[in-house]
Amino acid sequence: MKSIPTIAAIIFIASMLTASSFASAQQQTYDQPYRPQVHFSPERNWTNDPNGLVFYHGEYHLFFQYNPFGDTWGHMSWGHAVSRDLLHWHQLPLAIPEQNGVMIFTGSVVIDRTDSSGLCKPAKECIVAVYTGDGDTPDGHRETQNLAYSLDDGRNWKKYEKNPVLDLHLADFRDPSVSWDEERHHWVMAVSLPREHKVSFYLSKDLKQWTHASDFGPAGDTNGVWECPDLLRVPSEGKHGSLWALKVGLNPGAPQGGSGEQYFLGEFDGTSFKVSDEEGVHGWTNYGKDDYCAISFNGIPPGGQPVLLGWMNNWDYAAKLPTSPWRGQMSLARKLSLIRDQNGLALAQDPVIDSLRKGSVPLHLKESSGNEGAAATLSPPYELDFEEVNPSANSFGVRIYYDDQHWTEIGFDKAKGEFYIDRTRSGEGAIPAFATKTTAHVVPGRPYNVKVIIDRSSVEAFAQNGTIAMTNLVYPPTASNRVLFFPSSSPQTANVRAHLWKLASVWQGADRGHGPNSR
Ligand code: FRU
Questions:
Q1: Which atom of ligand 1 has the smallest separation from the CA of 194?
Q2: Which of 45, 47, 48, 73 to mutate to test the pocket of ligand 1 (most atoms within 8 A of CB)?
Q3: What is the pLDDT of residues 401-425, one digit of tens each?
Q4: What does the buried/exposed string (b/e) look like for 325-353 if buried means 16 or more CB atoms within 10 Å of the residue's CB?
Protein backbone atom coordinates (compact mmCIF):
# COMPACT_ATOMS: atom_id res chain seq x y z
CA MET A 1 0.00 0.00 0.00
CA LYS A 2 2.81 2.39 0.95
CA SER A 3 4.61 1.99 -2.27
CA ILE A 4 1.81 3.62 -4.30
CA PRO A 5 2.07 7.14 -2.82
CA THR A 6 5.86 6.79 -2.93
CA ILE A 7 5.80 6.02 -6.64
CA ALA A 8 3.30 8.83 -7.21
CA ALA A 9 5.60 11.20 -5.28
CA ILE A 10 8.61 10.10 -7.30
CA ILE A 11 6.70 10.61 -10.53
CA PHE A 12 5.53 14.02 -9.31
CA ILE A 13 9.03 15.14 -8.29
CA ALA A 14 10.49 13.78 -11.54
CA SER A 15 7.89 15.60 -13.60
CA MET A 16 8.55 18.85 -11.69
CA LEU A 17 12.25 18.46 -12.37
CA THR A 18 11.60 17.81 -16.05
CA ALA A 19 9.32 20.85 -16.25
CA SER A 20 11.85 23.16 -14.60
CA SER A 21 14.80 21.86 -16.61
CA PHE A 22 12.59 22.26 -19.71
CA ALA A 23 11.94 25.90 -18.76
CA SER A 24 15.64 26.60 -18.26
CA ALA A 25 16.52 24.74 -21.46
CA GLN A 26 14.01 26.99 -23.23
CA GLN A 27 15.65 30.03 -21.68
CA GLN A 28 19.02 28.98 -22.99
CA THR A 29 17.49 28.18 -26.34
CA TYR A 30 16.81 31.82 -27.07
CA ASP A 31 20.06 33.22 -25.70
CA GLN A 32 22.79 31.88 -27.98
CA PRO A 33 25.14 34.24 -29.82
CA TYR A 34 23.29 35.71 -32.83
CA ARG A 35 19.90 34.55 -31.50
CA PRO A 36 17.40 37.24 -32.55
CA GLN A 37 15.86 39.07 -29.59
CA VAL A 38 13.13 41.02 -31.39
CA HIS A 39 12.63 38.81 -34.46
CA PHE A 40 11.04 35.40 -34.79
CA SER A 41 13.32 32.40 -35.19
CA PRO A 42 12.33 28.77 -34.65
CA GLU A 43 13.60 27.15 -31.49
CA ARG A 44 15.62 24.74 -33.62
CA ASN A 45 16.10 23.65 -37.23
CA TRP A 46 15.77 25.30 -40.61
CA THR A 47 13.23 27.87 -41.76
CA ASN A 48 12.72 29.82 -44.97
CA ASP A 49 9.64 31.69 -46.26
CA PRO A 50 6.80 32.84 -44.01
CA ASN A 51 3.55 31.10 -45.03
CA GLY A 52 -0.15 31.48 -44.34
CA LEU A 53 0.04 34.78 -42.46
CA VAL A 54 -3.41 35.41 -41.01
CA PHE A 55 -5.02 37.32 -38.14
CA TYR A 56 -7.82 35.21 -36.68
CA HIS A 57 -9.63 35.23 -33.33
CA GLY A 58 -7.21 37.78 -31.88
CA GLU A 59 -4.06 35.90 -32.86
CA TYR A 60 -1.54 36.55 -35.60
CA HIS A 61 -0.52 33.23 -37.12
CA LEU A 62 2.89 32.77 -38.65
CA PHE A 63 3.32 29.51 -40.54
CA PHE A 64 6.74 29.01 -42.04
CA GLN A 65 8.71 26.76 -44.35
CA TYR A 66 10.28 24.35 -41.89
CA ASN A 67 12.48 21.26 -41.87
CA PRO A 68 11.48 19.36 -38.71
CA PHE A 69 14.56 17.14 -39.01
CA GLY A 70 17.52 19.45 -39.43
CA ASP A 71 19.11 22.84 -39.99
CA THR A 72 19.36 22.67 -43.78
CA TRP A 73 16.59 22.86 -46.39
CA GLY A 74 14.59 19.63 -46.83
CA HIS A 75 11.42 17.76 -45.81
CA MET A 76 9.61 21.05 -46.19
CA SER A 77 6.59 21.27 -43.92
CA TRP A 78 4.70 24.14 -42.27
CA GLY A 79 5.93 25.19 -38.84
CA HIS A 80 3.62 27.37 -36.76
CA ALA A 81 3.84 30.23 -34.27
CA VAL A 82 1.25 32.65 -32.86
CA SER A 83 1.44 36.13 -31.41
CA ARG A 84 -0.92 38.79 -30.12
CA ASP A 85 1.35 41.73 -30.94
CA LEU A 86 3.51 40.60 -33.92
CA LEU A 87 6.57 40.60 -31.64
CA HIS A 88 6.18 37.95 -28.92
CA TRP A 89 5.86 34.70 -30.85
CA HIS A 90 5.02 31.37 -29.29
CA GLN A 91 6.02 28.36 -31.39
CA LEU A 92 3.41 25.60 -31.64
CA PRO A 93 3.77 22.01 -32.88
CA LEU A 94 4.25 21.35 -36.59
CA ALA A 95 1.12 22.36 -38.51
CA ILE A 96 1.24 20.61 -41.89
CA PRO A 97 3.85 17.88 -42.41
CA GLU A 98 5.43 16.59 -45.59
CA GLN A 99 3.67 13.36 -46.54
CA ASN A 100 4.45 10.51 -48.95
CA GLY A 101 7.32 12.45 -50.48
CA VAL A 102 5.15 15.51 -51.19
CA MET A 103 6.65 18.58 -49.53
CA ILE A 104 4.44 21.42 -48.32
CA PHE A 105 5.76 24.51 -50.08
CA THR A 106 4.78 28.15 -49.60
CA GLY A 107 1.14 29.29 -49.59
CA SER A 108 -1.62 31.21 -47.81
CA VAL A 109 -4.22 30.77 -45.13
CA VAL A 110 -7.66 32.30 -45.64
CA ILE A 111 -10.63 32.65 -43.31
CA ASP A 112 -13.58 30.88 -44.92
CA ARG A 113 -16.29 32.85 -43.10
CA THR A 114 -19.25 31.28 -44.90
CA ASP A 115 -17.91 27.76 -45.33
CA SER A 116 -17.77 28.39 -49.08
CA SER A 117 -15.46 25.37 -49.33
CA GLY A 118 -17.77 23.01 -47.45
CA LEU A 119 -14.67 21.96 -45.48
CA CYS A 120 -15.63 23.63 -42.20
CA LYS A 121 -18.55 21.39 -41.16
CA PRO A 122 -19.78 20.97 -38.48
CA ALA A 123 -18.45 24.49 -37.81
CA LYS A 124 -19.88 27.47 -39.70
CA GLU A 125 -16.43 28.85 -40.59
CA CYS A 126 -12.83 27.70 -40.51
CA ILE A 127 -9.39 28.52 -41.80
CA VAL A 128 -8.15 26.96 -45.02
CA ALA A 129 -4.53 26.68 -46.16
CA VAL A 130 -3.81 26.83 -49.89
CA TYR A 131 -0.28 25.53 -50.44
CA THR A 132 1.94 24.11 -53.14
CA GLY A 133 2.56 20.37 -53.01
CA ASP A 134 6.01 19.60 -54.43
CA GLY A 135 6.95 16.02 -55.29
CA ASP A 136 7.79 13.39 -57.86
CA THR A 137 5.09 11.57 -59.77
CA PRO A 138 5.43 8.74 -62.35
CA ASP A 139 5.23 11.52 -64.97
CA GLY A 140 8.02 13.60 -63.45
CA HIS A 141 8.40 16.35 -60.88
CA ARG A 142 5.20 18.29 -60.18
CA GLU A 143 4.05 21.37 -58.32
CA THR A 144 0.30 21.60 -57.68
CA GLN A 145 -2.00 23.71 -55.51
CA ASN A 146 -3.66 21.96 -52.55
CA LEU A 147 -5.91 22.59 -49.57
CA ALA A 148 -5.76 21.77 -45.86
CA TYR A 149 -8.21 23.01 -43.24
CA SER A 150 -8.38 23.59 -39.51
CA LEU A 151 -11.43 23.85 -37.27
CA ASP A 152 -9.48 24.72 -34.12
CA ASP A 153 -7.62 27.96 -34.80
CA GLY A 154 -4.78 26.30 -36.67
CA ARG A 155 -3.78 23.77 -34.01
CA ASN A 156 -4.77 20.73 -36.10
CA TRP A 157 -4.92 20.45 -39.87
CA LYS A 158 -6.44 17.95 -42.28
CA LYS A 159 -5.45 17.74 -45.92
CA TYR A 160 -8.38 17.85 -48.35
CA GLU A 161 -8.88 14.31 -49.61
CA LYS A 162 -9.39 15.36 -53.24
CA ASN A 163 -6.13 17.32 -53.53
CA PRO A 164 -4.77 18.80 -55.73
CA VAL A 165 -7.25 21.53 -56.59
CA LEU A 166 -5.11 23.05 -59.34
CA ASP A 167 -2.71 21.04 -61.46
CA LEU A 168 -1.17 22.27 -64.72
CA HIS A 169 1.20 19.26 -64.87
CA LEU A 170 4.15 21.58 -64.43
CA ALA A 171 7.38 21.16 -62.47
CA ASP A 172 7.38 24.87 -61.55
CA PHE A 173 4.06 26.36 -60.51
CA ARG A 174 4.00 27.59 -56.93
CA ASP A 175 3.37 29.86 -53.96
CA PRO A 176 -0.37 30.68 -54.12
CA SER A 177 -1.37 33.96 -52.46
CA VAL A 178 -5.12 33.77 -51.89
CA SER A 179 -7.49 36.44 -50.60
CA TRP A 180 -11.21 37.17 -50.55
CA ASP A 181 -12.50 39.81 -52.99
CA GLU A 182 -15.08 41.70 -50.90
CA GLU A 183 -16.55 43.51 -53.91
CA ARG A 184 -17.05 40.55 -56.20
CA HIS A 185 -17.54 37.79 -53.66
CA HIS A 186 -14.99 35.31 -54.86
CA TRP A 187 -11.52 34.08 -53.98
CA VAL A 188 -8.53 35.40 -55.91
CA MET A 189 -5.30 33.46 -56.24
CA ALA A 190 -2.03 34.99 -57.45
CA VAL A 191 0.38 32.13 -58.19
CA SER A 192 3.79 32.04 -59.81
CA LEU A 193 4.98 30.55 -63.08
CA PRO A 194 8.61 30.99 -61.99
CA ARG A 195 10.44 30.27 -65.23
CA GLU A 196 8.04 32.23 -67.41
CA HIS A 197 8.34 35.29 -65.10
CA LYS A 198 4.60 35.44 -64.77
CA VAL A 199 2.06 35.74 -62.00
CA SER A 200 -1.18 33.98 -62.95
CA PHE A 201 -4.51 35.00 -61.47
CA TYR A 202 -7.22 32.41 -60.80
CA LEU A 203 -10.73 32.91 -59.38
CA SER A 204 -12.92 30.57 -57.35
CA LYS A 205 -16.21 30.52 -55.44
CA ASP A 206 -15.32 27.55 -53.22
CA LEU A 207 -11.49 27.30 -53.11
CA LYS A 208 -11.79 23.94 -54.89
CA GLN A 209 -12.53 24.87 -58.50
CA TRP A 210 -10.33 27.52 -60.00
CA THR A 211 -10.73 29.40 -63.29
CA HIS A 212 -7.82 31.12 -64.98
CA ALA A 213 -8.46 34.88 -65.22
CA SER A 214 -5.25 36.51 -66.49
CA ASP A 215 -1.45 36.61 -66.37
CA PHE A 216 0.89 39.44 -65.39
CA GLY A 217 4.45 39.53 -66.74
CA PRO A 218 7.15 39.25 -67.81
CA ALA A 219 7.77 42.76 -66.48
CA GLY A 220 10.36 44.66 -64.47
CA ASP A 221 13.28 42.47 -63.54
CA THR A 222 13.39 38.96 -65.02
CA ASN A 223 16.99 37.95 -64.26
CA GLY A 224 15.92 35.03 -62.07
CA VAL A 225 12.87 32.89 -61.35
CA TRP A 226 9.73 34.59 -60.02
CA GLU A 227 8.47 33.21 -56.69
CA CYS A 228 6.20 34.16 -53.80
CA PRO A 229 3.79 36.66 -55.38
CA ASP A 230 1.53 38.71 -53.12
CA LEU A 231 -1.32 40.94 -54.23
CA LEU A 232 -2.58 43.48 -51.75
CA ARG A 233 -4.47 46.74 -51.56
CA VAL A 234 -2.40 49.56 -50.04
CA PRO A 235 -4.12 52.59 -48.54
CA SER A 236 -2.79 55.96 -49.56
CA GLU A 237 -2.04 58.85 -47.27
CA GLY A 238 -3.92 61.90 -48.44
CA LYS A 239 -6.88 62.41 -50.68
CA HIS A 240 -6.24 59.90 -53.44
CA GLY A 241 -7.58 56.40 -52.95
CA SER A 242 -5.70 53.21 -52.42
CA LEU A 243 -3.74 51.36 -55.08
CA TRP A 244 -2.88 47.70 -55.47
CA ALA A 245 0.62 46.37 -55.02
CA LEU A 246 1.83 43.21 -56.68
CA LYS A 247 5.03 41.97 -55.08
CA VAL A 248 7.10 39.15 -56.50
CA GLY A 249 10.35 37.48 -55.40
CA LEU A 250 13.28 37.20 -57.82
CA ASN A 251 15.96 34.56 -57.35
CA PRO A 252 18.81 34.87 -58.15
CA GLY A 253 19.63 38.06 -60.05
CA ALA A 254 18.35 40.75 -57.68
CA PRO A 255 20.34 44.00 -57.95
CA GLN A 256 21.82 43.43 -54.47
CA GLY A 257 22.86 39.91 -55.48
CA GLY A 258 21.00 36.65 -54.93
CA SER A 259 17.34 36.82 -53.98
CA GLY A 260 15.32 40.04 -53.76
CA GLU A 261 11.83 41.38 -54.21
CA GLN A 262 10.29 43.82 -56.62
CA TYR A 263 6.90 45.48 -56.46
CA PHE A 264 4.56 47.00 -59.01
CA LEU A 265 1.85 49.53 -58.14
CA GLY A 266 -1.36 49.68 -60.12
CA GLU A 267 -4.98 48.59 -60.35
CA PHE A 268 -6.56 45.18 -59.93
CA ASP A 269 -10.03 45.10 -61.51
CA GLY A 270 -11.02 41.72 -60.12
CA THR A 271 -9.49 39.74 -62.96
CA SER A 272 -6.25 41.38 -64.00
CA PHE A 273 -3.49 43.62 -62.66
CA LYS A 274 -2.37 46.69 -64.62
CA VAL A 275 0.62 48.84 -63.68
CA SER A 276 -0.34 52.48 -63.16
CA ASP A 277 1.23 55.15 -65.39
CA GLU A 278 2.38 57.39 -62.53
CA GLU A 279 6.04 57.87 -61.52
CA GLY A 280 7.46 55.36 -59.02
CA VAL A 281 5.31 52.34 -59.91
CA HIS A 282 8.19 49.89 -59.85
CA GLY A 283 10.56 49.48 -56.90
CA TRP A 284 12.18 46.99 -54.57
CA THR A 285 10.37 45.93 -51.45
CA ASN A 286 13.79 45.79 -49.83
CA TYR A 287 17.12 47.24 -50.98
CA GLY A 288 19.17 45.10 -48.60
CA LYS A 289 20.21 41.51 -49.20
CA ASP A 290 18.07 39.86 -46.58
CA ASP A 291 14.35 40.08 -47.06
CA TYR A 292 12.72 37.47 -49.26
CA CYS A 293 9.29 35.99 -49.90
CA ALA A 294 7.52 38.57 -47.77
CA ILE A 295 3.75 38.19 -47.73
CA SER A 296 0.92 40.15 -46.13
CA PHE A 297 -1.51 39.05 -43.42
CA ASN A 298 -5.02 38.01 -44.38
CA GLY A 299 -7.80 38.85 -41.93
CA ILE A 300 -6.63 42.33 -40.92
CA PRO A 301 -9.83 44.14 -39.84
CA PRO A 302 -11.24 46.58 -42.44
CA GLY A 303 -9.52 49.93 -42.28
CA GLY A 304 -6.34 48.41 -40.81
CA GLN A 305 -3.06 48.87 -42.64
CA PRO A 306 -1.68 45.85 -44.50
CA VAL A 307 1.17 44.11 -42.67
CA LEU A 308 4.06 42.49 -44.53
CA LEU A 309 6.62 40.07 -43.09
CA GLY A 310 9.49 38.32 -44.89
CA TRP A 311 12.24 35.76 -44.49
CA MET A 312 15.32 37.68 -43.36
CA ASN A 313 17.76 35.85 -45.56
CA ASN A 314 19.18 35.34 -49.04
CA TRP A 315 19.45 32.11 -51.02
CA ASP A 316 23.07 33.14 -51.82
CA TYR A 317 24.23 31.91 -48.41
CA ALA A 318 21.16 30.82 -46.40
CA ALA A 319 22.59 27.34 -45.77
CA LYS A 320 25.92 28.70 -44.50
CA LEU A 321 24.81 30.96 -41.68
CA PRO A 322 26.78 30.36 -38.46
CA THR A 323 23.83 29.74 -36.11
CA SER A 324 22.84 26.69 -34.11
CA PRO A 325 20.57 24.90 -33.27
CA TRP A 326 18.38 26.95 -35.66
CA ARG A 327 18.96 28.47 -39.07
CA GLY A 328 16.78 31.25 -40.46
CA GLN A 329 14.72 34.07 -39.01
CA MET A 330 11.92 36.43 -40.04
CA SER A 331 12.00 40.19 -40.60
CA LEU A 332 9.99 42.49 -38.38
CA ALA A 333 6.36 42.96 -39.41
CA ARG A 334 5.92 46.22 -41.33
CA LYS A 335 2.79 48.30 -41.80
CA LEU A 336 2.42 49.39 -45.40
CA SER A 337 1.13 52.62 -46.85
CA LEU A 338 1.39 54.43 -50.11
CA ILE A 339 3.15 57.76 -50.38
CA ARG A 340 2.20 60.05 -53.22
CA ASP A 341 4.26 63.25 -53.27
CA GLN A 342 5.75 65.55 -55.89
CA ASN A 343 8.30 62.80 -56.62
CA GLY A 344 5.65 60.24 -57.47
CA LEU A 345 4.47 57.08 -55.75
CA ALA A 346 6.30 54.91 -53.26
CA LEU A 347 5.50 52.04 -50.97
CA ALA A 348 6.33 53.01 -47.37
CA GLN A 349 7.09 50.53 -44.58
CA ASP A 350 6.87 51.17 -40.88
CA PRO A 351 8.18 48.39 -38.62
CA VAL A 352 6.08 47.19 -35.69
CA ILE A 353 8.50 47.73 -32.78
CA ASP A 354 7.42 50.68 -30.58
CA SER A 355 5.98 48.59 -27.75
CA LEU A 356 9.45 47.16 -27.04
CA ARG A 357 11.06 50.58 -26.42
CA LYS A 358 12.45 50.57 -22.89
CA GLY A 359 13.32 54.23 -22.63
CA SER A 360 15.69 56.44 -24.40
CA VAL A 361 19.49 56.14 -24.03
CA PRO A 362 21.30 59.48 -23.72
CA LEU A 363 23.69 60.18 -26.53
CA HIS A 364 26.99 61.81 -25.60
CA LEU A 365 27.08 65.09 -27.36
CA LYS A 366 30.72 66.00 -27.04
CA GLU A 367 33.60 64.42 -28.90
CA SER A 368 35.54 63.84 -25.69
CA SER A 369 32.78 62.25 -23.71
CA GLY A 370 34.67 59.06 -22.95
CA ASN A 371 33.86 55.69 -24.41
CA GLU A 372 36.60 56.35 -26.96
CA GLY A 373 34.53 59.04 -28.60
CA ALA A 374 31.39 56.91 -28.96
CA ALA A 375 28.01 58.56 -28.70
CA ALA A 376 26.81 55.43 -26.91
CA THR A 377 28.00 51.96 -25.98
CA LEU A 378 25.42 49.21 -25.65
CA SER A 379 24.41 45.79 -26.88
CA PRO A 380 21.49 44.80 -29.11
CA PRO A 381 18.56 44.92 -29.34
CA TYR A 382 18.11 48.66 -29.78
CA GLU A 383 16.56 51.22 -32.10
CA LEU A 384 18.45 54.18 -33.51
CA ASP A 385 16.62 56.98 -35.33
CA PHE A 386 18.43 59.89 -36.90
CA GLU A 387 17.82 62.66 -39.38
CA GLU A 388 19.76 65.50 -40.91
CA VAL A 389 18.98 68.86 -39.31
CA ASN A 390 20.76 71.45 -41.43
CA PRO A 391 20.94 70.22 -45.00
CA SER A 392 24.55 70.25 -46.19
CA ALA A 393 26.62 68.66 -48.91
CA ASN A 394 28.18 66.26 -46.43
CA SER A 395 27.61 62.56 -46.17
CA PHE A 396 26.48 61.47 -42.75
CA GLY A 397 25.46 58.46 -40.76
CA VAL A 398 26.61 56.09 -38.05
CA ARG A 399 29.26 53.48 -37.61
CA ILE A 400 28.56 50.67 -35.20
CA TYR A 401 31.90 49.34 -33.99
CA TYR A 402 32.13 45.80 -32.63
CA ASP A 403 35.89 46.12 -32.11
CA ASP A 404 38.57 48.22 -33.76
CA GLN A 405 38.63 46.06 -36.88
CA HIS A 406 34.93 45.39 -37.31
CA TRP A 407 31.97 47.65 -37.90
CA THR A 408 28.79 48.20 -39.85
CA GLU A 409 28.16 51.60 -41.41
CA ILE A 410 24.71 53.03 -42.14
CA GLY A 411 24.45 56.37 -43.88
CA PHE A 412 23.59 58.75 -46.67
CA ASP A 413 26.24 59.37 -49.34
CA LYS A 414 25.06 62.71 -50.62
CA ALA A 415 27.58 62.92 -53.46
CA LYS A 416 26.32 59.65 -54.90
CA GLY A 417 22.71 60.29 -53.92
CA GLU A 418 22.55 57.00 -52.02
CA PHE A 419 21.42 55.51 -48.76
CA TYR A 420 23.54 52.49 -47.83
CA ILE A 421 24.45 49.82 -45.33
CA ASP A 422 28.04 48.68 -45.54
CA ARG A 423 28.67 45.34 -43.87
CA THR A 424 31.94 44.54 -45.61
CA ARG A 425 33.72 44.81 -42.22
CA SER A 426 30.97 43.33 -40.06
CA GLY A 427 32.90 40.20 -39.30
CA GLU A 428 31.46 37.33 -41.30
CA GLY A 429 34.12 37.15 -44.00
CA ALA A 430 33.92 33.36 -44.07
CA ILE A 431 30.49 33.35 -45.74
CA PRO A 432 30.80 33.70 -49.53
CA ALA A 433 28.89 36.65 -51.06
CA PHE A 434 28.21 38.05 -47.60
CA ALA A 435 30.62 40.99 -47.44
CA THR A 436 28.60 43.62 -49.28
CA LYS A 437 27.55 47.22 -49.30
CA THR A 438 23.90 47.58 -50.29
CA THR A 439 22.65 50.86 -51.74
CA ALA A 440 19.44 52.58 -52.75
CA HIS A 441 18.94 55.84 -54.64
CA VAL A 442 17.59 58.58 -52.45
CA VAL A 443 14.85 60.88 -53.71
CA PRO A 444 16.24 64.39 -53.04
CA GLY A 445 12.78 65.84 -52.27
CA ARG A 446 12.17 63.38 -49.42
CA PRO A 447 13.61 63.83 -45.91
CA TYR A 448 16.99 62.35 -45.06
CA ASN A 449 15.87 60.34 -42.07
CA VAL A 450 16.22 56.73 -40.99
CA LYS A 451 14.93 54.34 -38.35
CA VAL A 452 17.28 51.41 -37.68
CA ILE A 453 16.50 48.33 -35.63
CA ILE A 454 19.62 46.51 -34.48
CA ASP A 455 19.31 42.95 -33.26
CA ARG A 456 22.05 40.45 -32.44
CA SER A 457 22.41 39.37 -36.07
CA SER A 458 20.59 41.95 -38.18
CA VAL A 459 20.31 45.60 -39.12
CA GLU A 460 16.94 46.70 -40.50
CA ALA A 461 16.79 50.26 -41.79
CA PHE A 462 13.82 52.34 -42.99
CA ALA A 463 15.04 55.51 -44.66
CA GLN A 464 13.27 58.51 -46.21
CA ASN A 465 10.02 58.01 -44.28
CA GLY A 466 10.18 54.26 -44.85
CA THR A 467 10.19 54.46 -48.66
CA ILE A 468 13.60 52.72 -48.61
CA ALA A 469 13.62 49.52 -46.57
CA MET A 470 17.05 47.92 -46.27
CA THR A 471 17.55 44.74 -44.26
CA ASN A 472 20.89 43.05 -43.81
CA LEU A 473 22.09 40.21 -41.62
CA VAL A 474 25.34 40.73 -39.67
CA TYR A 475 27.43 38.28 -37.64
CA PRO A 476 29.71 40.50 -35.55
CA PRO A 477 32.58 39.10 -33.48
CA THR A 478 31.35 40.72 -30.23
CA ALA A 479 27.97 41.64 -28.76
CA SER A 480 29.17 45.07 -27.67
CA ASN A 481 28.35 48.01 -29.96
CA ARG A 482 29.94 51.45 -29.94
CA VAL A 483 27.81 53.90 -31.90
CA LEU A 484 29.74 56.72 -33.57
CA PHE A 485 28.23 59.32 -35.82
CA PHE A 486 30.08 60.79 -38.77
CA PRO A 487 31.39 63.08 -40.20
CA SER A 488 32.14 63.68 -36.52
CA SER A 489 31.48 61.19 -33.78
CA SER A 490 28.72 62.98 -31.82
CA PRO A 491 25.28 63.56 -33.31
CA GLN A 492 25.40 67.26 -32.52
CA THR A 493 28.61 67.99 -34.38
CA ALA A 494 27.59 65.54 -37.09
CA ASN A 495 24.58 67.80 -37.67
CA VAL A 496 21.95 65.18 -37.00
CA ARG A 497 19.10 64.81 -34.57
CA ALA A 498 19.24 61.34 -33.08
CA HIS A 499 17.37 59.14 -30.64
CA LEU A 500 18.39 55.80 -29.24
CA TRP A 501 16.09 53.36 -27.46
CA LYS A 502 17.11 50.18 -25.78
CA LEU A 503 14.57 47.52 -26.79
CA ALA A 504 13.20 44.84 -24.51
CA SER A 505 14.07 41.36 -25.68
CA VAL A 506 10.90 39.44 -26.50
CA TRP A 507 12.35 36.63 -24.40
CA GLN A 508 13.08 38.80 -21.37
CA GLY A 509 10.92 37.99 -18.38
CA ALA A 510 8.79 35.81 -20.61
CA ASP A 511 8.56 32.22 -19.63
CA ARG A 512 9.14 31.30 -23.28
CA GLY A 513 6.18 29.58 -24.71
CA HIS A 514 4.33 29.75 -21.43
CA GLY A 515 3.82 33.49 -21.55
CA PRO A 516 0.89 35.62 -22.60
CA ASN A 517 0.61 33.97 -25.99
CA SER A 518 0.27 30.39 -24.88
CA ARG A 519 -3.15 28.84 -24.94
C1 FRU B 1 11.25 30.58 -52.07
C2 FRU B 1 10.86 29.14 -52.31
C3 FRU B 1 9.43 29.04 -52.75
C4 FRU B 1 9.07 27.65 -52.37
C5 FRU B 1 9.83 27.46 -51.08
C6 FRU B 1 10.30 26.07 -50.83
O7 FRU B 1 12.16 30.78 -51.08
O8 FRU B 1 11.73 28.57 -53.27
O9 FRU B 1 9.23 29.33 -54.12
O10 FRU B 1 7.69 27.46 -52.21
O11 FRU B 1 10.93 28.34 -51.13
O12 FRU B 1 10.88 25.95 -49.58
A1: 9
A2: 48
A3: 999 999 999 999 999 999 999 999 9
A4: ebbbbbbbbbbbbbbbeeeebbbbbbbbb
